[in-house]
Write a structure and sequence with these properties.
This protein has about 250 residues and is α/β, with parallel strands linked by helices. Helices cover about 40% and strands about 15% of the residues. It has a single domain, classed as Rossmann fold, CATH 3.40.50. A 7-stranded mixed beta sheet has the order 3-2-1-4-5-7-6, with helices on both faces. Strand 1, helix 4 and strand 2 form a beta-alpha-beta unit.
Length: about 250
């Protein structure tokens, strides 16, 4: 009971929903305004809805209870909220033998190739993204400070700074139990899958934050192509309209 109370309180703190409701996703300009006010301009540490934090908790609890070996990683962390929550779940359950890896450029999204990924290039260059979202760039020291603010910055938290194509193939990670990918774009998603999936234990989880988005990125294409190339038939399970996951069975 105290563990769940702590984690529920943390979810509300990270999502800025202690005293207000989270915006309900739709494709309207009103939603975009509410999104900016709630997450970007205010004190949210994550842009994820609470349902996606629930999913993270469920996956962590399952790999712990089933003894699935490996660490946890998020690729693409913004202010760090989701991966802070990963560390919190481990700490709340007294897990001391798993690391949490925090992978990000800490300089925003990479510029897409406009010829290959026109929707992503249009999104990347849009005034809203450049001037309001600031290209989702949050520096490493800010993320470290956010971890420390929740009392969760310790030796089990490891940072991987740089583009995924450079950092993930050489990251000193032995095994993974959970890999949560939130790189938005095709190449970021493909780089994370190619760089990490072979380290994922059977019974571990792959969570794709933007799989359901199709108007401004090609994340779902990267995932579908990877799964086809690797002949992965594990079912994709929806968390909500945008986010999905699968559990590795072989």
């Amino acid at each position: 009971m105290p563990t769940q109370l702590y984690l529920d309180f943390l979810k509300k703190s990270l999502t800025n929903t202690l005293f207000s409701d989270e915006p309900i996703w739709n494709n309207s300009s009103q939603f975009i305004y509410q999104f900016i006010q709630h997450y970007i301009a205010d004190h949210a540490i994550t842009m994820l809805p609470v349902a996606r934090l629930d999913n993270i908790q469920d996956c962590i609890v399952d790999v712990v209870e089933q003894g699935v070996p490996g660490d946890l990683i998020e690729t693409g962390v913004w202010r760090g909220g989701a991966v802070i929550f990963m560390r919190a779940v481990l700490k709340a359950y007294g897990i001391t033998d798993r690391r949490v890896w925090v992978a990000d450029s800490f300089a925003g999204l990479p510029e897409p190739d406009a010829a290959l990924f026109p929707n992503e290039a249009k999104f990347y260059s849009a005034p809203l993204v450049r001037n309001i979202y600031k290209n989702f760039a949050v520096d490493l020291e800010t993320v470290r400070r956010n971890f420390a603010s929740f009392g969760l910055l310790d030796d089990s938290v490891r940072f991987l700074k740089g583009w995924f194509k450079d950092t993930l193939p050489i990251a000193p990670i032995e095994r993974l139990a959970i890999m949560r990918l939130d790189g938005d774009f095709y190449e970021s998603t493909a780089d994370a899958l190619n760089g990490l999936y072979d380290k994922l234990s059977v019974g571990g989880y792959v969570i794709i934050d933007d799989y359901g988005e199709d108007s401004w990125n090609y994340c779902h294409r990267a995932v579908d192509e990877f799964r086809m190339a690797r002949r992965i038939t594990d079912p994709l399970v929806r968390v909500d309209d945008q986010c999905c996951y699968w559990q590795r069975t072989s």
